[in-house]
C-alpha cells in the first residue's frame, strides 16, 4: 500500500479507535463507504415501506384521536426516510440510484413490513413491538461512527419513543376492554412477536456483515445482544397488561438475569427477505406506482429550484 494511502488509513483508524465521527469529507476505505451505503439506504427504504401497513388503517382508525396519532406517526416515518436518504447521499450515492436498487430487488428493506395489518390491534403491535425493536437498535446506532448517520439517529429516536408509547397505549386499552378486544390484541401479539425478533437480523454467528460493522463501529452492539435487550424489556411490558408471549420456551434465567427463549424460524426469515413473504409483492407494486405517479411533483420541484436560481443570478 503506498505511503499516502497508509497515512490516510492510519488517520481513519485513529478516529474510529478514539470515537471521533467520520464525516462526509473525510477519507474512508471504499468498503466502509459501501457498507454504510448498503445499511443506511436499506434503513431508509424500511422507513418508507413501513408507512404502507400502517397507512392501511388511516381511514379505519376507531376514533378521531387515534386517526390523528396514526397520521402523525406515518408522517414521522416518511421524515425518517428522508433523513436517512440524505445521510446516504453524503456517501456519494444518488436518491434515484437507491430507489432503482430497491425497485430492482437489489436492495432490501426490513422483513417486518411484509406482514399484513389485519386488525386495529396490529397498529398497536407495530407501534409497541416494531418501533420498540427499532428503538433498541437505533439508540445503539446513535453512537455509530459515521457522523450524518449518528445525528439522524438522535433525531429519529426522539420520535420513535412517541411511536412506541402510542402503540403500547393501544394494546393496553384493548386489554382493558371486552373479551373480543383482548382476543384481538393477543392475536396481534401472536402474529407480530417472532417477526419483530427477526428485525435484529440473523444470529451473530450467521451474520456476514457484523464483523466489519463492529470493527468500524458502525454497529456498536451485535444483533443477538440487541435482540436480547428487546426481549428482556418487552416481555415485562406484555405481562404487565396481561398479554402472553407466543413462545413456550420463554423462561427467566436467574443466572443470566435475562430470558431464555425459543428459536426463531430462520426458514421463514430467509423466505421473507428473499421476496416470498405475505405482502412483498404488494409493497413493491405500491411503492413503484407511487414513485411513478409522483414524478410530476419531482419535476415541478426541480423546475422551481432551477427558475429560482436563474432569477437570483439575474
Ligand atoms: N429484514 C431484511 N433484511 C435483513 C433483516 C431484516 N429484518 N435482517 C438482516 N437482513 C439482511 C441484511 O441486510 C443482510 O443482507 P445484505 O448484506 O444484502 O444487506 C443480511 O440479512 C445479513 O444480515 P447482517 O446481520 O449480516 O446485516 P447487517 O449487519 O446489516 O445487520 C441490521 C442487519 C441489524 C438490520 C442492520 O442493517 C441495521 O441495524 N440496520 C439499521 C436499522 C434498520 O434498518 N432497521 C430496519 C427497521 S427500520 C424501522 O423499523 C423503522 C421504524 O420507524 C418502524
Verbal overview:
- By secondary structure, the chain is mainly alpha-helical.
- The protein is built from 13 helices and 2 strands.
- Strand 1 and strand 2 (258-260) form a beta hairpin.
- The N and C termini lie far apart (50 Å).
- Bound molecules: 3-hydroxybutanoyl-coenzyme A (3HC).
- 3-hydroxybutanoyl-coenzyme A (3HC) binds next to helix 2, helix 4, helix 6 and helix 9.
Main features:
13 helices, mainly alpha, 2% strand, 314 residues, two-stranded antiparallel ribbon, globular
Molecular shape: globular
The helix/strand order is: HHHHHHHHHHEEHHH
Distance between the termini: 50 Å
Low-pLDDT windows of residues: none
User: Which small compounds were modeled alongside the protein?
Assistant: 3-hydroxybutanoyl-coenzyme A
Percentage beta strand: under 5%
Number of E-state strands? 2
How many distinct helices? 13
Write out the strand line-up for the largest beta sheet, numbering strands in chain order. Answer: 1-2
Given helix and strand content, the structural type is: mainly alpha
The helix fraction, in percent, is: 55-70%
> Largest beta sheet, briefly?
2 strands, antiparallel
- What is the CA-atom radius of gyration, in angstroms? 21 Å
Averaging pLDDT over every residue, what do you get?
97
Amino acid at each position: 500500500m503506498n505511503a499516502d494511502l497508509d497515512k490516510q488509513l492510519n488517520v481513519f483508524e485513529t478516529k474510529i479507535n478514539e470515537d471521533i465521527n467520520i464525516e462526509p469529507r473525510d477519507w474512508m476505505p471504499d468498503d466502509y463507504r459501501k457498507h454504510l451505503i448498503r445499511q443506511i439506504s436499506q434503513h431508509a427504504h424500511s422507513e418508507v415501506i413501513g408507512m404502507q401497513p400502517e397507512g392501511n388503517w388511516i381511514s379505519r382508525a376507531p376514533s378521531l384521536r387515534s386517526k390523528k396519532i396514526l397520521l402523525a406517526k406515518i408522517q414521522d416515518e416518511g421524515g425518517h426516510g428522508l433523513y436517512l436518504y440524505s445521510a446516504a447521499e453524503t456517501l456519494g450515492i444518488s436518491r434515484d440510484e437507491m430507489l432503482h436498487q430497491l425497485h430492482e430487488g437489489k436492495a432490501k428493506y426490513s422483513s417486518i413490513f411484509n406482514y399484513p395489518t389485519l386488525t386495529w390491534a396490529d397498529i398497536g403491535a407495530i407501534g409497541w413491538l416494531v418501533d420498540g425493536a427499532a428503538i433498541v437498535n437505533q439508540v445503539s446506532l446513535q453512537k455509530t461512527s459515521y457522523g450524518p448517520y449518528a445525528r439522524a439517529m438522535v433525531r429519529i429516536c426522539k420520535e420513535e419513543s412517541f411511536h412506541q408509547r402510542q402503540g403500547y397505549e393501544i394494546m393496553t386499552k384493548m386489554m382493558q376492554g371486552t373479551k373480543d378486544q383482548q382476543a384481538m390484541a393477543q392475536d396481534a401479539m401472536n402474529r407480530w412477536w417472532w417477526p419483530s425478533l427477526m428485525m435484529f437480523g440473523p444470529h451473530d454467528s450467521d451474520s456476514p456483515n457484523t464483523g466489519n460493522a463492529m470493527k468500524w463501529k458502525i454497529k456498536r452492539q451485535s444483533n443477538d445482544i440487541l435482540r436480547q435487550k428487546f426481549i428482556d424489556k418487552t416481555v415485562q411490558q406484555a405481562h404487565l397488561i396481561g398479554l402472553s408471549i407466543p413462545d413456550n420456551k420463554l423462561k427467566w434465567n436467574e443466572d443470566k438475569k435475562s430470558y431464555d427463549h425459543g428459536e426463531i424460524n430462520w426458514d421463514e426469515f430467509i423466505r421473507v427477505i428473499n421476496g416470498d413473504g405475505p405482502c412483498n409483492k404488494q409493497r413493491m407494486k405500491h411503492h413503484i406506482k407511487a414513485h411513478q405517479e409522483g414524478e410530476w411533483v419531482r419535476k415541478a420541484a426541480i423546475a422551481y429550484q432551477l427558475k429560482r436560481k436563474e432569477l437570483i443570478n439575474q
